[in-house]
Amino acid sequence: MVRSLTLGGEAVELGALMAQGAEALYSCSYRGKDAVVKERIPKAYRHPELEAQLTKSRFTQEVRCAARAQEVGVDTPNVLYSDPVQGIIVMEKIDGRPLREVFDDAALKPAEAIELGQALGRAVAKLHNANIIHGDLTTSNAMLRRDGALVLLDFGLSKVDLSAEEKAVDMYVLQRAFTSTHPDTEAVFDELLAAYLAALSDADREKVAKKFPKVQQRGRKKRPPPDAVAATAAASSS
Question: Which candidate in 83, 95, 104, 136 is catalytic?
Fold first, then answer.
């Protein structure tokens, strides 16, 4: 059965379910444009009033941070419609490839991988120079348009924060996601980090550069040792 939503007084039919987590993503056509509907899935265990407050706050913040990102030169999907109260955003559907897929392409040359990493680093620096923390930096949350432009996606966990600590944590999240998703790309991430720091504001560069190793160290302490991971896996399979 085809489901539809009334958005801005217009009935919009939802197409295929593209992804589902805390929110569901559907393809659709909105006012003649290929688009994506992002819809918040209510948490049944949460009090309805609290759920409504959180939904409104998070979706409002997402739209604001994405718009601010565009203002400072970061390419993000254009928001075509939003209703934070209902937890709905309609955004441009990007014609391109996920960055994760691009990095996994065997045809990608090492020099091209480094260029992409550097472009991603510079894009994150633009966010951080505007004190925008993305919150979920991964190669799944970035795409390449057909013309080669890099697009950052999913500002659902974004926030505004001036601290070097939060910026370093944002980069650590990216490093963990990057190296776990794309093995043997440490050199690419090193170039990404160098490009990021070079593009970071003078006021933040030294602070973030000092914080980042400390955040890495904390992160490593929280991770279980390889032997413990292997033992857990063996116990689970027995």
Answer: 136
Residues with Cβ within 8 Å of 98's Cβ and at least 6 positions away in sequence, in order, are 139, 140, 142, 143
Confirm whether 136 is a catalytic residue: yes
Domain boundaries, the chain: 9-92, 96-222
List the CATH code of the domain at 96-222. 1.10.510.10
Give the number of other Cβ atoms within 10 Å of residue 215's Cβ: 21
For the stretch 1-53, pLDDT in tens is: 778 999 988 899 999 999 998 899 999 999 999 999 999 988 888 898 998 99
Q: Which of 203, 207, 201 is nearest to 129 (CA)?
A: 201
State in words which class domain 9-92 has.
alpha beta
Q: What's this model's pTM, rounded to 2 decimal places?
A: 0.88
